[in-house]
């Protein structure tokens, strides 16, 4: 956290995180999309080929944009809840902006997701790495104990993960 620009805005920090993940996801998904497009292009003849390829591009593009928006909203909620939990335990050393700096500038561990063909399998490892980095950076930025930083940083992702698993199990048993 010492190397991160303290004077940067929350918007710049969020932009850094979004651009970083855009690059990771594009590098990981581009070979898959290109092979799908080439395969579809060679296998379809006549006027249908262009329609199928354009619908495939629109599907991938739409899913990509929605995924980035959901990711962005998750990080905004994560930052707000992390800072709220820090404040419940006492006054943190810095404001909400520094909490966002710690969460967004610590996303480098997700570089594992950029590995073409197997990046999607690295998401759990990248997420754990990002959370550990964020915990260390929040601890240093807000000058709180490691336990307090870990509780504040891990709480929101843990609740979201538990809810997702619960929804999947509920969907399977009903």
Overall description:
- With 174 residues, the protein is mostly helical.
- 76% of the residues lie in helices and 0% in strands.
- The protein has five helices and no strands.
- The protein has helices at residues 10-43, 48-88, 96-105, 123-142, 146-173.
- The longest helix has 41 residues, at 48-88.
- The protein is elongated, with a radius of gyration of 20 Å.
- The N and C termini lie far apart (46 Å).
- The mean pLDDT is 88.
Characterize the biggest β-sheet: none
What is the first-to-last residue Cα distance? 46 Å
SSE ordering: HHHHH
Query: How many runs of DSSP E, i.e. beta strands?
Result: 0
Portion of residues within helices: over 70%
- Helical run tally: 5
Mean pLDDT: 88
Q: Rg from C-alpha positions?
A: 20 Å
Regions with pLDDT < 50 over 5+ consecutive residues?
A: none
Question: What shape does the CA trace take?
Answer: elongated
Structural class: mainly alpha
- Proportion of beta-strand residues: under 5%
Salient structural properties:
5 helices, 174 residues, 0% strand, mainly alpha
Provide a quick synopsis of the model.
The protein has about 170 residues and is mainly α. It has helices at about 10-45, 50-90, 95-105, 125-140, 145-174.
What is the fold's blueprint, element by element?
Layout: H1 10-43, H2 48-88, H3 96-105, H4 123-142, H5 146-173
Helix pairs in contact: 1-2, 1-3, 2-3, 2-5, 3-4, 4-5
């Amino acid at each position: 956290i010492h190397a991160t620009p303290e004077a940067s805005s929350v918007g710049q920090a969020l932009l850094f995180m979004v651009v970083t993940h855009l690059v990771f996801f594009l590098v990981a998904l581009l070979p898959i999309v290109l092979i799908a497009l080439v395969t579809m292009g060679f296998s379809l003849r006549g006027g249908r080929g262009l329609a199928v390829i354009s619908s495939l591009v629109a599907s991938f593009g739409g899913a990509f944009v929605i995924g980035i928006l959901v990711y962005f909203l998750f990080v905004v909620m994560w930052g707000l809840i992390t800072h709220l939990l820090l404040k419940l335990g006492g006054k943190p050393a810095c404001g909400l902006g520094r909490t966002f700096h710690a969460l967004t500038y610590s996303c480098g561990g997700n570089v594992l997701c950029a590995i073409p063909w197997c990046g999607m399998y690295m998401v759990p490892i990248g997420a754990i790495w990002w959370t550990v980095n964020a915990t260390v950076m929040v601890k240093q930025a807000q000058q709180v104990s490691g336990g307090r930083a870990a509780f504040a940083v891990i709480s929101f992702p843990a609740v979201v993960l538990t809810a997702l698993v619960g929804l999947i199990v509920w969907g399977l048993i009903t």
